[in-house]
Write a structure and sequence with these properties.
With about 150 residues, the chain is of the alpha+beta class. The chain is built from four helices and twelve strands, in the order βββαβαβαβαββββββ. The protein has a domain of about 90 residues. Strands 4-5-8-7 form a four-stranded mixed sheet.
């Protein structure tokens, strides 16, 4: 339910996973952690993001995001906490040489950058339902519990 730019999907196939070793996860807990990530692994994206991000933030200079390939050398995943998601949307955050913006993330999302996860069970299909005006996800074919 907490998805940025919802595509209106009504079904999802979910694969249980387990790590093959303890994963190295970078936690983005707020604006400072995002800025630190971008400054440590900068990738300039001015020409591809300037138009949209300027409309959101009014920053007209250079834009940077993390260089995900470089991040993957040190971290298996990056996790954006709900608090970080709520503190950063639409804000141009100053970084060395320009600015960055947290965009395209959902609250509590984790982007996996390496193959540290492996299948651990059979995939399951879930479906979106609208019980009493409340959208929820449940295993496909499950009967609503009435509560």
């Amino acid at each position: 339910m907490l998805v940025e730019d919802d595509l209106g999907w009504s079904q999802a196939r979910v694969q249980p996973l387990r790590p093959v070793r303890p994963p190295r996860v970078y936690e983005v807990t707020g604006t400072a952690a995002w800025v630190e990530l971008v400054e440590r692994y900068p990738l300039e994206v001015t020409f591809s993001r300037r138009h949209d991000w300027w409309r959101t933030s009014r920053h007209s200079g250079r834009w940077f995001i993390p260089d995900w390939l470089a991040v993957a050398a040190d971290h298996d995943a990056v996790h954006l906490t709900v608090a970080a998601y709520l503190a950063t949307p639409g804000r141009a955050l100053a970084v060395e040489g320009g600015a960055t913006l947290v965009a395209g993330w959902d609250p509590d999302a984790t982007y996996w950058l390496t193959d540290v996860l492996t299948a651990d069970g059979e995939p399951l299909t879930w479906e979106r339902c609208d019980d009493d005006g409340t959208q929820r996800w449940r295993p496909a074919g499950a009967v609503a519990d009435g509560g």
